[in-house]
Design goal:
heterodimer; A: mainly alpha; MetI-like fold; B: mainly alpha; 2 domains; 14 helices; about 80% helix
Chain lengths: ~290, ~325
């Protein structure tokens, strides 16, 4: 048992060594951690509430008091970006986790059992994947109406088929491996096989996917909000802030700059991290 | 080959029926019904009921769906817009060329930008050019199209006054939207071109070409790029679908009157027949694009073509 733990520790250390080999990955991780900490500490750091209005100070240029300026209602953009990050990041992460859990389980079970369950599920996913993901998300938001929860649900439904397909493909590959035969031969239960043999073996691929999906989910929510279908005023989601600032772009470009850059930094760090993790987990995938 | 195409077209049919059912059911969930949308929020319950009865909205869902499909398949009728009363199909067909134009221009721009930068990165592997291309590509992927678009509008339209910010009245109106889309999607093209090129560059026949004194340009374009083409086209194909979806958002940013903008505006006015028609049209286009891409591989790579033909022959033999 001890030996096994040592082996795992060694593997984890090797993973981090490979991950931090590239400076840009370290930078990305640093950016992401700083963003997460700032967003978590929003109530402490933010000088104002996200909805503190004061028309008399509308469109104040960035200055010491208002780091990123104020918007048309005189709300502090810096505070709004911080609170907005809570919405963007939490939807991105939670939606991804739910979609991954559901998708992977469905995919793993359907790949493992095959049969009619597999057939029905895959045809359903064919349908969901026969449209561009953003179109599906738009259609779902249109039918459920606006709001944070509905936007999150749209993101989840859009992300599930990809995860399920991925997990299913992986399961089909490892099902024919010898260690699976061995597990079946030792009379292991199905749950045991799926959770102890199948899932751990498809984990590396899944982790990479999850990192990239968080970025994708944040983009989808921001896009929906930008189109007026997602998070609504007065909540300061980044895409919604960009949408609201659009009309004042020419005279007050700073209204879109802060939320846009926050979004860009978040997605950039997640994408770079995802790439880094992929290279570290599977050196063969590297060019 | 014809057999393969036929089979692919046939498998598209159930999927598209599935899409129509899905979107039909989704819009049933939507707030407010057709009668309400047509008569407005202040209509009396009586007139609402009358209209519902007339439109068959009180029938069971399955009957309504059947009627919708019958009209669609037999008459090519997608219903009328709640807003304008005009046939949905007519309006969509008017707007459709714009969406396709934007998507095609974006695919071309993405391919040009991605392949060029990918080629540069591969030929100058690990140089500063390689690094800069990679980082810029990453920023492109990470910047949502609406942010890129707004920044471009601010610089090139607001500050410099070189290009128009919205509308579609001439070629110059398409420059910013196309750059926005290409910037967002060129990275995967670049990455694929780079790794495909690097793979080819390691091959023996490249060494042979070099050994016989072939010029650098000829090696890169004739020997290397040509052999790296299949993965490059694969990504162009994948991008084509994504860009079709992306066109919907870009249309909204730059006020281009395509199907995407039509659909999103229709969601705002609860004009559900229009939304339904728009989704069906885009989904159909997406499936057709994917089919065309599959067929494109086999034209580029004779190995794939012979495989397909071989497969269908084998199947034919088995069934006979």
């Amino acid at each position: 048992m001890n030996q096994k733990r040592n082996k795992t520790l060694l593997r984890i250390r090797e993973f981090f060594r490979l991950l931090f080999r590239k400076k840009i990955t370290v930078l990305a991780l640093a950016i992401f951690l700083v963003l997460v900490v700032m967003v978590l500490l929003a109530p402490v750091i933010a000088p104002y509430g996200y909805d503190d209005q004061d028309i008399s100070r509308a469109f104040t240029s960035p200055c010491r008091e208002f780091l990123f300026g104020t918007d048309k209602l005189g709300r502090d953009i810096f505070s709004r970006v911080l609170y907005g990050g809570r919405i963007s990041l939490s939807i991105g992460i939670i939606a991804t986790l739910i979609a991954s859990a559901v998708g992977i389980l469905l995919g793993a079970v359907s790949g493992y059992y095959g049969g009619w369950f597999d057939n029905v599920l895959m045809r359903l996913f064919d349908v969901l994947m026969s449209m561009p993901p953003i179109l599906l998300a738009i259609a779902i938001s249109a039918s459920l109406g606006n709001g944070i929860m509905n936007a999150a649900l749209a993101v989840i439904v859009t992300a599930i088929p990809m995860k399920a397909r991925l997990a299913r493909g992986q399961v089909l590959t490892i099902r024919s491996q010898e260690y699976m035969e061995a597990a079946i031969a030792t009379n292991a239960s199905t749950a045991q096989i799926i959770f102890r043999h199948v899932l751990p073996n498809i984990l590396p691929v899944i982790i990479v996917q999850i990192t990239l999906t968080v970025a994708g989910s944040i983009t989808t929510v921001a896009s929906l909000s930008y189109l007026g279908l997602g998070v609504q005023a007065p909540f300061p989601e980044w895409g919604a802030m960009l949408s609201a600032g659009r009309s004042y772009l020419k005279d007050y470009p700073y209204v879109i700059l802060a939320p846009g850059i926050a979004l860009l930094l978040t997605l950039f760090s997640l994408n770079v991290l995802g790439d880094g993790i992929r290279d570290a987990l599977d050196p063969r995938l590297k060019d | 080959m014809a057999r393969y195409i036929g089979k692919r077209v046939l498998t598209m049919i159930p999927v598209l029926i599935g899409v129509s059912l899905l979107i039909f059911l989704l819009l049933e969930l939507a707030p407010g019904d057709a009668a309400q949308s047509i008569l407005g929020d202040y209509a009396s319950e009586e007139s609402l009921n009358e209209l519902r009865e007339e439109m068959g909205l009180n029938d069971p869902l399955i009957v309504q769906y059947g009627r919708f499909m019958k009209d669609l398949l037999l008459k090519g009728d997608l219903g009328n817009s709640y807003q304008t009363g005009r046939p949905v199909l007519e309006t969509i067909l008017e707007r459709y060329p714009m969406t396709i134009l934007v998507a095609i221009l974006a695919v071309i721009a993405t391919a040009l930008l991605g392949v060029t930068t990918g080629l540069l990165s591969a030929v100058k592997q690990y140089s500063w050019i390689d690094n800069i291309c990679t980082v810029i590509g990453m920023i492109g992927v990470s910047s949502p199209s609406f942010f890129t678009g707004l920044i471009l509008i601010f610089i090139f339209s607001g500050k410099l006054g070189w290009l128009p910010a919205s509308g579609s009245y001439g070629p110059q109106y398409f420059i910013l939207p196309i750059i926005t889309m290409a910037f967002g999607s060129c990275a995967s093209q670049m990455r694929m071109t780079r790794s495909a090129m690097l793979e080819v560059m390691r091959q023996d026949y490249i060494r042979t070409a070099k050994a016989k004194g072939q010029g650098d340009k000829k090696i890169v374009f004739h020997h290397e790029l040509r052999n790296a083409l299949v993965p490059i086209i694969t990504v162009i194909g994948q991008q084509a679908g994504v860009l079709l979806g992306g066109a919907m958002i870009v249309e909204q940013i730059f006020s281009i009157p395509g199907v995407g903008k039509l659909m999103i505006d229709s969601i705002g006015t609860r004009d559900y027949p229009m939304v339904r028609g728009g989704v069906l049209f885009i989904a159909l286009s997406f499936s057709v694009v994917n089919l065309l891409v599959d067929l494109a591989y086999s034209t580029v790579d004779p190995r794939i073509r012979s495989q397909l033909v071989h497969q269908s022959k084998k199947k034919k033999g088995a069934s006979a």
